[in-house]
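Hey,

The postdoc asked me to send both predictions to you directly instead of through the lab channel. I've kept everything plain text so nothing gets mangled by the mail client. Protein one:
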Amino acid sequence: MWILSQLSTIHLLWAAMVFCQYEDYDFEDEYDEEPDHQQPYYINFNPNTQAEVPRFPFPVECARECFCPPAFPLSMYCDHRKLKTIPNIPRHVQQLYLQNNDIEAVPGGPFTNVTFLREINLSHNKIKFHMIDRGVFAKLSNLVQLHLQHNELEEFPFPLPSSLERLLLGFNKISRLSGNALEGLPNITMLDLCNNFLDDSVLKGKPFSNMKNLMQLNLCNNKLQTMPPDLPLSLMYLSLENNSISYIPENYFNRLPKIIALRMSHNNLQNIPRNTFNLPNLLELNLGHNKLKQVFYIPRSLQHLYIEDNDIEMINVTLMCPSIDPMNTNQLTYIRVDQNKLTIPISQYAFFCFPHIRTIYYGEQNVNVNKSTQLRTPVFRRFLTPEEYDEAEDDHETHDHETEEDHEAEGNYFHPYF
């Protein structure tokens, strides 16, 4: 009887310990732990925020060579991993990052049944045109952004899906554009072809004329000698730096009234027809490092003018501003005129024509052949009201100490996300 009593007591103590164990267990601790990335897990997506993704739960898989962060379940990161081939891509992936690898080919296999891809980054690889399976990109009907810059492409990659909006092909070896390469791309808004081998013969077929939504075109660092023909009316940003363009046809920009920024530094421009840049929306004009001998008409909308490193001996303000309209003043705030042949500062009349001017950067002038000189005022700064100072305190803070390299760092061509 005593033995049975002891056993009952032990049983009760054991039951109490087990109960207390569950009583103190915090079930939330289980969900605070990192998930096991080796096993697929499931996520329910809000159909209101992920319209392209099925409304039913699906397994979020990941290629073993890559990383799929739980916080971004639609993205797969395979960059900087010395990959030579493209891994298989799970069906749900929308953003695929494969930049900075040793990939040489783009076969169709890894992209089988990948219907939700919206962005592919294959920049900084070793891809050649003939190593891209024909149609591998064209079947991706939701693709809006494709990065192929810094590869070894000799030709424009085509066909491409009509959904594409941004295409980056800079720093390749592209010297050819097939006649229909750019057809069927009605939604392209940004096309980057900088740092390739394009010349005038490639553009004779007017490849950009039907791109009705194109807003930004980068053609810097190519082999162009003339302005690209028949650019679309929609264009807002045009980059043509580092070519060999020697003239701009009269009325060339009449069909491009939406241009906001034009960059044509490092060309061979000598004379600019007076009203060439009579554009209602132009904010930035860069004609530095050319062979200009005189200035030209400045549209009232222009804010930043770069004409450094030319052969200008005098700034004729009357050419820049033939009339003053108090009700519609010029918006110019910054002029860069260093490395010209100026011997005197800009006339004081300029401040009546351009009442918003804050800075004129004179720098050094090339008056003598073997020696540069400096005007008495290398940098002019207009006194700002307190309100103007607050607005401009972050702009051009230390022009007195800027070097040529500092100015070049302002950007050789439009950033792809301009």
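Protein two:
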Amino acid sequence: TNQNSDIQIFALAILLSSTFVYNTMNKIDQGAIDRLHKVTELTNLLRTRNSSDLNETEEPAYVSFFPDLVWTLRDFYLSLEINGHAITSDEYLENSLKLKQGSDERTQAFNLPRQCIQNFFPVKKCFVFDSPAHKNKLSQLQTLSIEELSPEFVQELSEFCSHIFTHSKTKTLPGGIQTLLSAKQEEICKKNVEASADRCSTLLESIFKPLEQEAAGGIYAKPGGHNLFLQKMEQLKAQYRQQPGKGTQAEEMLQKYLKAKEPLSNTVLQTDQALTAKEKERKAEQARAEAARAEAQRLEAIRIQEEQRRAEQERLHQEKLRQIEIDRANFLAQQQRIREQRIQACRSCWVPHDP
């Protein structure tokens, strides 16, 4: 039932704790005591399971398993005094758990939960807390700074925390159970490590196998192939880390796998470097050939330009010579005409006249 489940959960919380903080409001009343009285049902549960080891006249062995009780009272509004005399919060707790005299049914019902609390929690401590802030700020409590809290509350909280940090001990068990628990823990941890290692090994093989097949197939045997290999490796590492249920050995197994695959990565790198060097040499040779072709083209263009220049000079020279010949012929012709005109004029002068 749910009630039995609650009891078992409560038993587990109690037995696993070295300090049990019981947090209630305002004051210690019968309701708070009755809720803590669940330990009586816990007693019956443990008695049933340990009946062979118990003697009704002896203190139950499991009492030594119980933690220290720290009862905290929030928004405490009572005055810490009895009959006009000031008392401590611890004395207030002890007085609240004090048994009544008498054997009637009502007195027994009153004493039973208090007696159980005293039996199961021989070490008890009580802290009372004022309201943490003024009532008009209580709705904003989660956003208030420490300076906005009540100084009394801050001081009480500091004392409570100091006690918890100072007096709370590591949970220990008597009778060599702690040696036994450590051995059991080691055994379980070892099994977990082995199971995690097996799971991670299978997962790594499944995820990284395609990469190994690609490398074997020469996918990365090209200039720049190592960078592509590393990029794919990072993608697969992310895929591996996203897989659930790997256990405690997840990262260690990944690192071991990557260490084992370093020779493959180095092979891809060396192939990349060799092919990259060849590619660089090929490109350098291509560049040199292109430079030589460009230089030859440049020189051929210069040669053609020079031939054209000389041909043009020769054409101009021949044209000039032809013009000189023409001019000379024209000049000689003109001179010839002038001589002929002079001769004709002279002949006219020599013609004899009639007497």
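Summary for protein two, as requested: The beta strands are 19-25, 68-74, 81-82, 85-86, 124-128.

Thanks,
C.
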